[in-house]
Amino acid sequence: MLRRSHIRLRLPLFLHRTLTSTPTQPLPDGDLHPLKPRIPLTNKTFVVTGGARGIGYSIARAISELGGNVSVWDIAPSPVEDYHTLADEFGVKTMYIPTDVSDEGSLRNALDQTMGTFGKLDGCVTAAGTYLVQPFLEHTGEDLSRMLKVNTLGTFLTTQLVVSQLRAQNTPGSIVMIASIAAQTIIPGMYFSAYNASKAGVWMLGRALAYELGPHGIRVNTVSPGFTDTVMMAPLKQDPETLKKVESIPPLKRIGKRSDVAPAVTYLLGDGASYVTGVDLVVDGGLQHA
Ligand SMILES: NC(=O)c1ccc[n+]([C@@H]2O[C@H](COP(=O)([O-])OP(=O)(O)OC[C@H]3O[C@@H](n4cnc5c(N)ncnc54)[C@H](O)[C@@H]3O)[C@@H](O)[C@H]2O)c1
Fold it and tell me: What is the model's pTM?
């Protein structure tokens, strides 16, 4: 029988040290940093578009919970009530600015107000979005235009403004775009072609900008939720057959919750992901491979 002492004798010294050191000990070259200080978002400030409700709100809440300041830009005149409690609950600063992400002037005003209050930015999450379920031949040009304007152009313009601010500050930053599983996956019998096209644009924008902005220390990633229980899901939930289908397709056998998505986003925003750019983090209960 092979005893431990035998194994030790056979291993080269450097390999023996690597395999037997406990994970909390720094490596001899000092390259192993503790994880806990890299999870909080303390002293960072992020813009969250579409944060008045739904997934965007859950992300704004999660950023606050991790100590970050948030400026929400959303077309709704006001956010869910709970948004106003975040500052006191977590000792952070929050702002709410009614903004149309498809309108450059409206975005410029939101950035000016945000900078007036916070003085610097560390990135953004683009969650503002709109959705339309209907067969291809029933779509009008106006339908496609609306999807592209809010989902794709809105993401493009918001990111462009935030990145211009990061470049002016000469600081690194993190951008997380909420794409969708619909950017890459077709669910048989469910039709949202204009939405598919608009989110595929967001997905590719994430890859392109990761490459272009990486040399400036600006990381760009996308998060692609699967079916997630928000107001956006309401049309699908109206039909019991569709609901059953949506719940049964993912290997994890349920619809996603907003709180399934937010941790993926805060991971990508934080310093723990400092070597992660150009990825798409899929949060879909395995739907993509079903
Ligand atoms: N719910 C899902 O199943 C699901 C799945 C994949 C991706 N997504 C994406 O997640 C994001 C959030 O969706 P949600 O499910 O929370 O939906 P939601 O409808 O609850 O939230 C969307 C938010 O975007 C805001 N918004 C819409 N148009 C805007 C505009 N022109 N300017 C600024 N804000 C605008 C709305 O006011 C709302 O607060 C969207 O980008 C959506 O495409 C959702």
Answer: 0.91
